[in-house]
């Protein structure tokens, strides 16, 4: 019996050895062609060393959980790269006091080069990056094509949370938390075909400033409690701002279109508790439709003298009325700004509901308010000055007494 037991054990151990050796040979000789090793940042002395370990053709850097303090910017100078963490537990904190950013993505020579020679396809995902009042931007990207940020927390920087410069091709920013930055949550200059979706912005100076670009698709974001403005779009065309919650920009404006904007749709947003809801400073051929304007203290929608050919339809301008003579916050929220036409022409204002006792539905100011089509609107417990628009077609507007506000 002892002999048989010893023999069996010998055969078993031999089999294990053969299988182990075979497995090692497979790993050594039959790796997936084209695969590259994952850079585990925990195996390096610094995050920068881990990033520098990437091969020229790119790869993946995996951030471990932990808090990692930096005093100089992390720099990525390669494309085809993903840097990902394990969520908020992977925390990079910039302690710099000289206005330097936390993370910079650009070519090593910093040159503007033709599109094919730029860095392509960089993804940052699932980590937290913070700064101080004296540090610079959170993440700065220059001339990066197909930049993708997802699930990144960018907070408390002295500059912009995200500062994107001529990332022309298909930038995507989704599911990020962008909060408490001293300047813009996102600043984008020269961006094309950009998606900003399902992010949360809180208490930045402005949430988003998008200038000198086109084809912005901004949908499904929550923009809350900003110190100045919500969304600023300048010198941009062919864009949509839709399905967002934009509230509590009490010292500023929810949405601003300025400097030769055209062909932009602002639709299906809730725009509440701002100074001005939407201000069209210099915009043409735009649509403002199906938005809910609630308790914007100055104006709901303002169309300035440098704007025209605007279609405004299907919007609700209301206060905190709940039906049956009841109001949510009573006197604090009874007022809601309506539409202000300031020296503007060739606009359509149709099918809107206005209801707030202490404001005017449509205010006409300045000169040259003419050739406007104002029809089929309902004015509930509110006055309107739309008849002051000269050379205009005014018809089928209905005014009713509505409910009286509570004392």
From TrEMBL:
Residues of the Periplasmic copper-binding protein NosD beta helix domain: 173-320
Domain of life (superkingdom): Bacteria
Matches recorded under Pfam families: NosD
Keywords: Lyase
An example molecular function term from Gene Ontology annotations: lyase activity
Protein name according to UniProt: Pectate lyase superfamily protein
Native source species: Polystyrenella longa
């Amino acid at each position: 019996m002892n002999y048989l037991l010893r023999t069996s054990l010998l055969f078993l151990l031999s089999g294990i050895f053969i299988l182990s050796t075979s497995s090692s040979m497979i790993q050594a000789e039959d790796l997936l062609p084209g695969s590259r090793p994952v850079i585990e940042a925990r195996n390096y002395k610094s995050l920068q060393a881990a990033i520098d370990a990437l091969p020229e053709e790119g790869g993946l850097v995996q951030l471990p959980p932990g808090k990692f303090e930096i005093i100089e910017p992390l720099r990525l100078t390669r494309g085809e790269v993903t840097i990902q963490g394990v969520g908020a537990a992977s925390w990079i904190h910039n302690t710099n006091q000289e206005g330097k950013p936390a993370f910079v993505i650009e070519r090593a020579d910093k040159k503007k080069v033709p599109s094919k020679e730029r860095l392509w396809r960089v993804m940052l995902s699932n980590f937290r990056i913070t700064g101080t009042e004296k540090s610079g931007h959170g993440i700065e990207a220059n001339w990066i094509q197909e930049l993708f940020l997802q699930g990144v927390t960018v907070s408390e920087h002295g500059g912009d949370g995200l500062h994107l410069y001529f990332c022309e091709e298909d930038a995507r920013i989704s599911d990020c938390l962008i909060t408490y930055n001293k300047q813009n949550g996102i600043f984008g200059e020269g961006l094309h075909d950009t998606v900003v979706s399902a992010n949360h912005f809180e208490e930045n100076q402005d949430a988003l400033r998008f200038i000198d670009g086109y084809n912005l698709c901004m949908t499904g974001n929550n923009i809350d409690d900003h110190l100045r403005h919500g969304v600023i779009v300048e010198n941009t065309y062919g864009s949509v701002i839709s399905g967002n919650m934009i509230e509590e920009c009490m010292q500023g404006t929810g949405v601003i279109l300025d400097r030769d904007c055209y062909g932009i749709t602002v639709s299906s947003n809730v725009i509440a508790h701002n100074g001005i809801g939407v201000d069209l400073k210099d915009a043409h051929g735009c649509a403002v439709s199906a938005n809910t304007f609630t308790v914007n203290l100055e104006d709901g929608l303002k169309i300035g003298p440098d704007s025209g050919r605007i279609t405004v339809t299907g919007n609700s301008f209301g206060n905190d009325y709940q039906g049956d003579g009841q109001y949510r916050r009573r006197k604090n929220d009874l007022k809601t700004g309506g539409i202000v036409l300031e020296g503007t022409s060739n606009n359509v204002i149709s099918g809107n509901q206005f209801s707030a006792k202490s404001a005017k539905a449509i205010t006409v100011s300045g000169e040259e308010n003419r050739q406007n089509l104002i029809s089929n609107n309902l004015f509930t417990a509110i006055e309107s000055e739309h008849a002051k628009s000269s050379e205009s077609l005014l018809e089928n507007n209905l005014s009713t007494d509505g409910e009286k506000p509570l004392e």
